[in-house]
Design a protein that fits this description.
The model has no long low-confidence stretch (mean pLDDT 97). This protein has a single domain, classed as Peptide Deformylase, CATH 3.90.45. By secondary structure, it is α+β, with helices and mostly antiparallel strands. Strand 8 and strand 9 form a beta hairpin. It is globular, with a radius of gyration of 16 Å. The structure holds ligand GNR and nickel (II) ion (NI).
Length: 175
C-alpha cells in the first residue's frame, strides 16, 4: 500500500482525456488500493486515477455518512447509462483544487455501468451525494474539473490563488 501524491490545478495532466482500462489485473487492483488509501488519508470521498498521475479510466468513491454508506466502490471504465432530468446543486470541492468550493448543478440521479474489481460488468443507481461524487469523478476522466463548470470569473480567481499558493510552497521549499 502507498500514499500517492495528488496533482494540484493548474496541471496539464489534469486536463487529459483518460484511456480505457483494457483488463482489470493485479496492477490495476494495486492502484485501486493505493488510491483508496490516498483518498481516505486526504481525506476525500472520491478520487480519480488522473489525480494521482495515471491517465486511465478508474475511479474510487466511498461515502460514509449517516443515511448513505456505500463502502469502497471501485469503478473501471464507468459510463452513465441514464440520468434524471432533475438537477441538484451541491457545494463541491476537489482534492486537486484545495480549499476552494463552488456550487455545481448535476443530474440528481444517474445509473452507472462499470467494471468492478473483478472485471465484472455492474450497474449502480446513484442518488444524493453518491450521484454528485460519481459524476465529479467521471468528469476527471474527461479532463474536466468542477471549476470548469462555474463562471470564467470565479474560475480565474481560484486559478490565480492556486498559482500563488504553489509559488509560496516552492519558495518555502527553497528556503
Ligand atoms: O472529497 C471530495 N468531496 C467532494 C465534495 C463534493 C463534491 C465532490 C467531491 S469529490 C472530492 C474528492 C475529489 O476531488 N475527487 O475527485
Ligand atoms: Ni476532484
Amino acid at each position: 500500500m502507498a500514499l500517492l501524491p495528488i496533482l494540484i490545478a493548474p496541471d496539464p495532466r489534469l486536463k487529459l482525456v483518460c484511456t480505457p482500462v483494457a483488463r482489470v489485473d493485479d496492477a490495476v487492483r494495486q492502484l485501486m488500493d493505493d488510491m483508496r488509501e490516498t483518498m481516505l488519508a486526504a481525506p476525500g470521498i472520491g478520487l480519480a486515477a488522473p489525480q494521482v498521475g495515471h491517465p486511465i479510466r478508474l475511479i474510487v468513491v466511498e461515502i460514509e455518512r449517516e443515511g448513505q454508506k456505500t463502502g469502497p466502490l471501485f469503478m473501471v471504465n464507468p459510463e452513465i447509462v441514464e440520468a434524471s432530468d432533475e438537477d441538484v446543486i451541491y457545494d463541491e470541492g476537489c482534492l486537486s483544487v484545495p480549499e476552494h468550493y463552488a456550487e455545481v448543478a448535476r443530474p440528481a440521479k444517474v445509473r452507472v455501468r462499470y467494471l468492478d474489481r473483478d472485471g465484472e460488468t455492474r450497474e449502480l443507481e446513484c442518488e444524493g451525494l453518491l450521484s454528485t461524487c460519481v459524476q465529479h469523478e467521471m468528469d476527471h476522466l474527461e479532463g474536466i474539473l468542477f471549476i470548469d463548470k462555474i463562471s470564467a470569473l470565479k474560475r480565474g480567481i481560484i486559478l490565480r490563488k492556486l498559482i500563488k499558493a504553489r509559488k509560496d510552497r516552492e519558495r518555502e521549499e527553497a528556503d
